[in-house]
Structure formats: C-alpha cells, structure tokens
UniProtKB/TrEMBL annotation, chains A, B, C, D, E, F:
Keywords: Lyase. SUPFAM superfamilies: AhpD-like. Residues 32-116 form the Carboxymuconolactone decarboxylase-like domain. Pfam families: CMD (PF02627). Signal peptide: none annotated. It comes from the Bacteria. Its EC number is 4.1.1.44. This is 4-carboxymuconolactone decarboxylase.
Length: 129, 129, 129, 129, 129, 129
C-alpha cells in the first residue's frame, strides 16, 4: 500500500515528532485508506511544501484547530509537534491568547488547558513569557 | 402526552433499531417536551417522509453529524441505525472518508474512531471494502 | 497584576456565583494573562455594562454556547450562573428547547443533558414548567 | 395543507411583525412542505410555548444567529421581530456586543452592521444607550 | 503539471457535469497548486473510489455543505452535479428538508433557496414530490 | 471616549495599514462602544503583546478566519494587513492551501478567491511561489 507520497509524509511526520504508525494502527481494521490519505495528502503533499517552514505551519494549524473546536485529540498532537519543530511554549500560548479576538473565550480556554496538559507531560511548566 | 405523530416517530425509530424510551427516560425529569418534539418532529414528521429511503437518510445524517462536530453521542446512535437499515460498514466508512474534501481531517478522523467503536461492539471488524 | 477592571470583573463574577480563582488558578502556570483578560474584558468590561440585566445576559450566553458546540465546561458554569442570578430551571430548559429551530437537535440534546446534571447537583429535579 | 399548528404559527409570526406568506411564497414551487414545517414547528410549536416571553425568545434567537454565522437573512428578520415585540435598539445592540466574549469579533461586527441596516430602515438611528 | 490522478479527477468531474477549467482558470494566477490538489485529491482520489455511487456521494456532499454553512458557491455546483448524476429535484429537496433535525432552520432555508435557483436555471420548477 | 489602550490599538492598526476610523465611523450611530472595545482589546491589548511578531499574528489570524467561515470582510482586511507587515503573497497563499487538511475545500477555495481579489487590487498578480 505504501507509495512515494506516503513515505515522504511519514518522514515529515517523524520530523514533527510523530509516528505514522499511530495513525495507521488505529485505522487498520476500519479504514486503512484513510491512514494512507492522511499520510499521502496532509503530511506528504501539504506538509512538505516549501513556502512556509514547519514553525509557521504549526502556528496556522493550531489557530485552525482552536477555531474549529472539538479537536482536543488533534490539538494535543499538533502542540507537541509545534514544540518539536521549535516553537516555544510561550509562542504557543501567545497564539492561543491571540485568538480571543477571533474565536471567542470558550475555544481559547479549552485549548489552553490542552496546551497546559501537553506542557506538563513534557515538564515545561511554568511557561515563562 | 402521546400523539399520533409521536407514535409514528417511535415506530420509525424502532425500525432503525432505536428505542424511544432511550430518549424519553433521560429527559423525563428535565425536559419531557424535548423528548416529545424529537419523537414527533424528527422521527415522526421528517424520518417518515417518502422521497428518500432510510439508507439515503442515514447517509445524509452521518454526513451532517461528521461536519457539525461535537456529535459523538449522535454519531454512535446514527451509525448503529445506518447498519440496522442496511448500509454496510464499508458504505459508512466510505461516506466518512468522502468528507475529507469538505469537513477536514479532524472531523473525519474523530468520526472514524466512533464508527470503529460501533463496528467493534457489533463484531463487524475488520471492515472489508 | 490586578487592575481596576479585573477587580470589577471578579466582583461581577462573584455576583454570578463564580470565583475568579477558578479561572486564575488553572491558568497560573500556563497563561496568567489569559485569566487577566477574561477577568478584565469578559467580566469587567462586558458583564458590568448596563442595558441588559444579568438574567438577559445569561439567556444570551446560554443560547450562544449551545449553538457554538464543544462548550460543556462553559455551559456548566453559565447554567449555574443563570440560576444564581435568578433564571428558573424552567426558563433555562425553555431557552434550550427554543434552539431546536436554530441550532439543530444534537446541540440541543447535548446541552439539555448538561443542564440536567447541573440541576441534579443543586437538587432542582424534576423541573416543573 | 393548512393545519391548526400552522395557523397558530402564522398568527404568532404576525405578532412578531412577520408574514407567513413571505415564507410560503418563495418556497411554493420548490418545497412547500418546508414552509409548512417552519410554520408548524418553529412558529406554531416552539414560539407559542409559555415559559419565555417573546422578548426573551428574540434575545436567545439573536444570540444563536450571531454565533452560527452565515445568517444575514435570518438576523434581518429576527432583529425586526425583536423590535416589534418590544426589545429596544439599545438592548439588541447590547446583546450583540455581549457576544464578543463567546463568538469572537468577526461574528459580532458583521451582525452589528445588519442591525444598523435594520435600524436605518426603521429610522431608529442613532441608537441611544 | 498534469498528473494521472489529476486527469482521472478531471474525467470524474466531467461525468458530474463540471469542467476542471472552471477550477483551474480562476486560480491560475493566484494558486495553481490548489487547483491541482482539488483535481487530484477531491475528484481524482476520493470521488473515483468504489463503495458509493455518485448519487450517494452527492447526497453526502449536499448534507455536509448545508451543515457547514457559507457554501453557496459549492452548493450551486454540487446541486447541479447531483442532478447530472441522476438525483431528482425531489430527492435533493428531501435531503435538505431532512437536515432540519440536524443543522437548524437557517442553514436549511438558505440552502433551499440555492436549490430553487439551480432548478430554475435548468427549468425544473415546480418540483413535484 | 479615547483611552490609552484605544490609542495604542489605533497606532498598532496603523502599522498594519489600517485606519481606526474605518471601524469607528460605520459603528458611530449604532454601537460606538463596539468600536472602542475592538480598538482597546483586539488591537490595543492583544495585537501589541510581545511574544509573536505581526507576521506570525497575521498567519494565525488568517488561519482562524478561513476556518471560521463567513468572514470575507475580515479576510479582506487581514490579508491586506498581512501584506503590509511583510508576509509575501506566496506565504499567504501557502497558509490557505495548508488548511485543506483542517478546514476542508470550501473554506479554502472561498478564501483563496478573496486573497486573489486583494492581490489584484495591489497589483500583485501573478503570485510567484
């Protein structure tokens, strides 16, 4: 099933601290093609494009996930990835606070508690601005 | 409190593998009229209309719930109902994958894990395309 | 860090049955400025304005939270606050039912179960219309 | 096609300054049943319930529509209805401003321009707080 | 720039009554890669999969677009495509009405007016159930 | 009515190529306090914080607005501001394309046409990657 685009996506995901098996395994019995599409398209096609570096991409991704809502699982992964590619905890916190103007308090408050939990797991608390 | 429309809705719900008591009972002390409206309007008026069969309705319902987000409870019920009215696990999986183009990955991924859990409860894994 | 606007917000929150420390404490290590902004702006600037009383504000707040989705934490707080400022359980239930026309069944059903849980905690069940 | 619930809804709508024909006519060739359902359910069942007066219902409705987005047509109607049932321009403005905390600036700003347009049509500008 | 996946997507789109040039041309000066991704992924990868026929896919697509909101442009295209692949006007109308239970009246009402406009352009009014 | 926070916000907005009068004037007769809050809080408090530079803030803002939907007016302003603070057309295009994975095609396609229109107004077409 593996394609060149999928391999490229898996490699990009690894640079972000992720493991393609964590997408492939839970979908194996229900929708292996979904895992393939995520690997090929999201990580293989989109995340490997030039034009924005990975820190910029994680900034945009976090902003989108906070705004969308019902994305705790995704925020947890992408905040971890943001740290791996070099965004600081303070930059992530600042991005979420910034969204008070656009997404409203509930989205921001919920996302900040996810960020806190990720930072705690990585022993990054307290965040120093 | 029971009306003809409500009885018709309860019967329709039963065809879908549901039990109107699972709507009535949890709302009994807080909002019995909400249970009545859901029975009368959603299941009695809308779900009993001609023009689309129940498999088409469950296709549309699942697509709406995936897109809306924060609907795990409803997806669990309506994926079960979809199976009961004759959609196959493969058709349900395919519907959710299709929404990658319209609702984005987070909605699709979360919904697929709900589908997997429903299929596991009914001993329907692995899904064969 | 405390400002006049923040103190005013904390006082308003107290009138609503809340405690600013429940916002400040969980954010202390991750984003103390977010707690300050919520205190200053949402509760200090907006919630203290004349023109609507607190019961009207809680009506509008609950309608917004139900519609937004993924707001269980906020609904729990604001339904409690609605009771504290004088809305009856029946008025809160009625507001949520009203939203069937605008936000769809899933949002309404999920919110009603949160309301039921809040009412149960305050020994307010059954709700009498 | 007219039912008792529909007639009751049409009467309620008239109290709100609306005209059921403005719903029936544009849908006549495409979906007359949709007009019937809106008349019967939204206006006949929901809007005629006791427990909240029409000013409270319009407060909740406006809050829901602002938060939902892509509702200019509905906001225009329901802000007009809010004025007809006795909410003042200042109360409507205050409700929209209140939502800065929950729905974010873009939703609030767009809705306020709709309110301004409705007030201008009714010669209610400037709004005095 | 053309790939096998893109060619397959363009062919699929043509079966749906669309023309890939209507995606390529407006994006040519701003984001040709976006046109390529839409052709390759949405139409080439997703829309050509077995497991659901095109009528089922258009049912799901319309349900998703109605629920998402702010999708008039997309609804116009996909309602046209739904007709081309064999859904009847009555089935499309019925799908939109069905969503009253899940997406709320404003989304349904706005979508129905788009459907009416598409049907009028194709001389398909009045719709006979 | 002018406060230190408002003046700071107006100055920040000017750095972004905006003019506070374009917010103040249209709201003057309907909701001058809304203009004050936007100036004080969004531009005065949030946009002047350290921790993220203006290019990072505009990246996050655009991602949030694309995802939220029904934000054409805001996208038009903030894409212009993004250019003013130094993001290139190619970076803006890339940010919008990136969101295919998170917000779905309709949000991305609509936003790209807004970007194209802004770039055309500033004679920045074609965009060179």
């Amino acid at each position: 099933m593996s394609t060149e685009r999928f391999e490229r996506g898996a490699a990009r995901l690894a640079e972000m601290g992720g493991d393609i098996d964590n997408i492939v395994a839970p979908l194996a019995e229900v929708a292996p093609d979904l895992a393939r599409f995520v690997g090929e398209f999201a990580f293989g096609d989109l995340y490997t494009r030039p034009g924005l570096d990975l820190r910029q991409r994680q900034l945009a991704t976090i902003a989108a996930l906070v705004t969308l809502g019902d994305t705790e699982r995704q925020l947890r992964f992408h905040i971890n990835a943001a740290l791996t590619v070099g965004l600081t905890p303070a930059e992530i916190v600042e991005t979420i606070i910034h969204l008070l103007a656009f997404a409203g308090n509930p989205r921001v408050f919920n996302a900040m508690l996810v960020a806190k939990s990720v930072f705690a797991d990585r022993d990054l608390l307290p965040v120093v601005g």
